[in-house]
Amino acid sequence: MSETKTNVCRILDKSKIHYECHSYEPGEKLDAVTAAQKMGLDPGQVFKTLVTQGKSGAYHVFVIPGAQELDLKKAAKAAGEKSVEMIHVKDINKVTGYIRGGCSPIGMKKQYGTILDESAKNYTTIVISAGRIGSQVEVSPLDLANLIRASFAQITARQEGSI
């Protein structure tokens, strides 16, 4: 696996934010839970980046634990929208500059309003895509939020047995 730095790593370096690189051999499944298993990490700590479009036409980015589902009602409220819908997979590259499975909240074509799930605060570090399939970066959720001017909100569907 190539260890060349991604644009995400260069942005973190330039911002003097401490991070750790992780990589895994990608397979057919491109989900965060599979990535966590391949890297031997806690699946709750590996976050996925989802892009939505609000009723206003604005794009919004949500970063949530890989095993969780985005609650569209909570996401819309957190983004100040009447409603939000996931963008089509075919539009990911056009909107973000990334491809499905390698979408990072850092270094998108534009800095969209971004909301991190509040569960990120439960960890000293979280793992997000480094902008390439098979590459991840581990970073402090507070450093990430400061870098991309993100806020925190409870935006996932509550799982059975959760508080």
* Spatial extent as radius of gyration: 15 Å
What global shape is seen? globular
Largest sheet, spatial ordering of strands = 4-2-3-5-8
Q: What's the oligomerization state?
A: single chain
What is the tally of beta strands?
Answer: 8
Q: Distance between termini? A: 40 Å
Please identify the structural class as seen in this structure: alpha/beta
Mean pLDDT, all residues: 92
| Number of helices, where a helix is a run of at least 4 consecutive DSSP H or I residues | 5
Give the percentage of residues in beta strands.
25-35%
**What can be said about the biggest beta sheet?**
5 strands, mixed
Helix-residue proportion: 10-25%
Report the uncertain regions: none
Question: What does this molecule look like?
Answer:
The longest helix is centred in the first third of the chain and has 8 residues. The chain starts with 6 loop residues before the first helix and ends in a 10-residue tail after the last strand. The strands form 2 sheets. A 5-stranded mixed β-sheet has the order 4-2-3-5-8. Strands 1-7-6 form a 3-stranded antiparallel β-sheet. The radius of gyration is 15 Å and the shape is globular. By secondary structure, it is an alpha/beta fold.
